[in-house]
Design a protein that fits this description.
mainly alpha; 3% strand; elongated; 2 strands; 2 helices
Length: 170
Protein backbone atom coordinates (compact mmCIF):
# COMPACT_ATOMS: atom_id res chain seq x y z
CA UNK A 1 0.00 0.00 0.00
CA UNK A 2 1.32 3.43 -0.95
CA UNK A 3 1.25 5.94 1.86
CA UNK A 4 1.97 9.62 1.18
CA UNK A 5 2.97 11.82 4.07
CA UNK A 6 1.57 15.21 3.12
CA UNK A 7 2.94 16.84 6.22
CA UNK A 8 6.70 16.49 5.84
CA UNK A 9 8.24 19.03 8.21
CA UNK A 10 11.63 17.29 7.97
CA UNK A 11 11.92 18.24 4.29
CA UNK A 12 10.73 21.80 4.78
CA UNK A 13 12.84 22.42 7.88
CA UNK A 14 16.00 21.16 6.16
CA UNK A 15 15.42 23.38 3.14
CA UNK A 16 14.54 26.42 5.20
CA UNK A 17 17.56 25.88 7.45
CA UNK A 18 19.87 25.70 4.46
CA UNK A 19 18.24 28.78 2.93
CA UNK A 20 18.55 30.70 6.20
CA UNK A 21 22.23 29.74 6.43
CA UNK A 22 22.89 30.79 2.83
CA UNK A 23 21.02 34.06 3.39
CA UNK A 24 23.02 34.79 6.55
CA UNK A 25 26.29 33.83 4.84
CA UNK A 26 25.61 36.22 1.95
CA UNK A 27 24.65 39.01 4.36
CA UNK A 28 27.82 38.48 6.42
CA UNK A 29 29.91 38.47 3.23
CA UNK A 30 28.40 41.85 2.31
CA UNK A 31 29.14 43.20 5.78
CA UNK A 32 32.71 41.91 5.55
CA UNK A 33 33.16 43.80 2.28
CA UNK A 34 31.89 46.99 3.94
CA UNK A 35 34.20 46.50 6.92
CA UNK A 36 37.17 45.95 4.58
CA UNK A 37 36.27 49.12 2.68
CA UNK A 38 35.96 51.11 5.91
CA UNK A 39 39.28 49.79 7.29
CA UNK A 40 41.01 50.68 4.03
CA UNK A 41 39.40 54.13 4.07
CA UNK A 42 40.45 54.81 7.67
CA UNK A 43 44.03 53.66 7.03
CA UNK A 44 44.30 55.88 3.95
CA UNK A 45 42.74 58.83 5.75
CA UNK A 46 45.04 58.50 8.75
CA UNK A 47 48.18 58.31 6.60
CA UNK A 48 47.05 61.33 4.57
CA UNK A 49 46.24 63.33 7.70
CA UNK A 50 49.64 62.42 9.17
CA UNK A 51 51.32 63.80 6.05
CA UNK A 52 49.20 66.98 6.25
CA UNK A 53 50.04 67.48 9.93
CA UNK A 54 53.75 66.95 9.30
CA UNK A 55 53.59 69.49 6.47
CA UNK A 56 51.69 71.94 8.71
CA UNK A 57 54.27 71.67 11.49
CA UNK A 58 57.13 72.12 9.06
CA UNK A 59 55.63 75.18 7.42
CA UNK A 60 56.76 78.62 8.43
CA UNK A 61 53.52 80.56 8.00
CA UNK A 62 49.82 80.26 8.65
CA UNK A 63 49.05 80.96 4.97
CA UNK A 64 50.92 77.83 3.92
CA UNK A 65 48.85 75.69 6.32
CA UNK A 66 45.64 77.31 5.06
CA UNK A 67 46.61 76.67 1.40
CA UNK A 68 47.45 73.08 2.27
CA UNK A 69 43.96 72.57 3.68
CA UNK A 70 42.36 74.19 0.61
CA UNK A 71 44.28 71.81 -1.63
CA UNK A 72 42.87 68.85 0.30
CA UNK A 73 39.21 69.83 -0.27
CA UNK A 74 38.78 68.81 -3.97
CA UNK A 75 40.55 65.51 -3.29
CA UNK A 76 38.29 64.90 -0.29
CA UNK A 77 35.16 65.42 -2.41
CA UNK A 78 36.44 62.92 -4.99
CA UNK A 79 37.29 60.42 -2.25
CA UNK A 80 33.85 60.75 -0.67
CA UNK A 81 32.20 60.20 -4.05
CA UNK A 82 34.39 57.15 -4.73
CA UNK A 83 33.67 55.76 -1.26
CA UNK A 84 29.90 55.96 -1.69
CA UNK A 85 30.23 54.49 -5.17
CA UNK A 86 31.98 51.47 -3.63
CA UNK A 87 29.32 51.25 -0.91
CA UNK A 88 26.60 51.28 -3.57
CA UNK A 89 28.36 48.55 -5.55
CA UNK A 90 28.73 46.38 -2.45
CA UNK A 91 25.08 46.94 -1.51
CA UNK A 92 23.91 46.07 -5.03
CA UNK A 93 26.03 42.91 -5.20
CA UNK A 94 24.88 41.81 -1.75
CA UNK A 95 21.25 42.55 -2.58
CA UNK A 96 21.48 40.51 -5.78
CA UNK A 97 23.07 37.60 -3.91
CA UNK A 98 20.40 37.73 -1.20
CA UNK A 99 17.65 37.88 -3.82
CA UNK A 100 19.08 34.82 -5.59
CA UNK A 101 19.03 32.91 -2.29
CA UNK A 102 15.39 33.90 -1.74
CA UNK A 103 14.44 32.90 -5.29
CA UNK A 104 16.18 29.54 -4.97
CA UNK A 105 14.51 28.92 -1.61
CA UNK A 106 11.06 29.71 -2.99
CA UNK A 107 11.67 27.52 -6.04
CA UNK A 108 12.77 24.62 -3.83
CA UNK A 109 9.75 25.10 -1.58
CA UNK A 110 7.36 25.15 -4.53
CA UNK A 111 9.03 22.11 -6.08
CA UNK A 112 8.62 20.25 -2.78
CA UNK A 113 4.99 21.27 -2.47
CA UNK A 114 4.18 20.30 -6.05
CA UNK A 115 5.94 16.96 -5.66
CA UNK A 116 3.83 16.29 -2.57
CA UNK A 117 0.74 17.33 -4.50
CA UNK A 118 1.69 15.07 -7.39
CA UNK A 119 2.22 12.20 -4.95
CA UNK A 120 -1.20 12.83 -3.47
CA UNK A 121 -2.73 13.01 -6.93
CA UNK A 122 -1.12 9.72 -7.95
CA UNK A 123 -2.97 7.83 -5.23
CA UNK A 124 -6.21 9.74 -5.68
CA UNK A 125 -6.15 12.14 -2.71
CA UNK A 126 -6.03 15.30 -4.86
CA UNK A 127 -7.23 16.24 -8.33
CA UNK A 128 -4.73 16.15 -11.19
CA UNK A 129 -6.78 18.49 -13.39
CA UNK A 130 -5.65 21.66 -11.60
CA UNK A 131 -1.95 21.23 -12.37
CA UNK A 132 -0.29 22.48 -15.50
CA UNK A 133 2.81 20.79 -16.92
CA UNK A 134 4.25 24.00 -18.37
CA UNK A 135 3.69 26.05 -15.25
CA UNK A 136 2.90 24.39 -11.94
CA UNK A 137 1.22 27.53 -10.67
CA UNK A 138 -2.30 28.08 -11.96
CA UNK A 139 -4.14 31.33 -11.57
CA UNK A 140 -7.86 31.26 -11.94
CA UNK A 141 -9.55 34.54 -12.70
CA UNK A 142 -12.93 35.22 -11.29
CA UNK A 143 -15.71 35.62 -13.83
CA UNK A 144 -16.51 39.13 -14.90
CA UNK A 145 -19.22 40.60 -12.72
CA UNK A 146 -22.44 41.29 -14.53
CA UNK A 147 -24.92 43.93 -13.54
CA UNK A 148 -27.85 41.61 -13.05
CA UNK A 149 -30.04 42.16 -10.02
CA UNK A 150 -29.48 39.86 -7.09
CA UNK A 151 -32.50 38.01 -5.76
CA UNK A 152 -32.48 36.78 -2.17
CA UNK A 153 -34.55 33.69 -1.46
CA UNK A 154 -35.41 32.28 1.97
CA UNK A 155 -35.21 28.57 2.86
CA UNK A 156 -38.75 27.86 1.57
CA UNK A 157 -38.03 29.45 -1.82
CA UNK A 158 -39.94 32.70 -1.33
CA UNK A 159 -38.33 35.84 -2.76
CA UNK A 160 -37.17 38.09 0.06
CA UNK A 161 -35.51 40.77 -2.04
CA UNK A 162 -35.75 41.40 -5.74
CA UNK A 163 -32.48 43.26 -5.92
CA UNK A 164 -34.06 46.65 -6.47
CA UNK A 165 -32.38 49.39 -4.59
CA UNK A 166 -34.47 51.73 -2.57
CA UNK A 167 -33.58 55.32 -2.07
CA UNK A 168 -34.37 55.17 1.62
CA UNK A 169 -32.21 54.01 4.47
CA UNK A 170 -34.39 51.02 5.43
Amino acid sequence: MNVVALNRPDILDEGSTIAAYEFAAKAVTGLEKLVELNVQTVKTSLSEQQAVIEAAFSSSSFNTVFELQLQQFPAAVKKISAYWGHVETIAEETGNELWSVVQESVQNYLATQFSLFDSAASIGIASVDSTNAASPITVEQSPVATKEPVVLVDSSGNVVSSGRRSSGLH
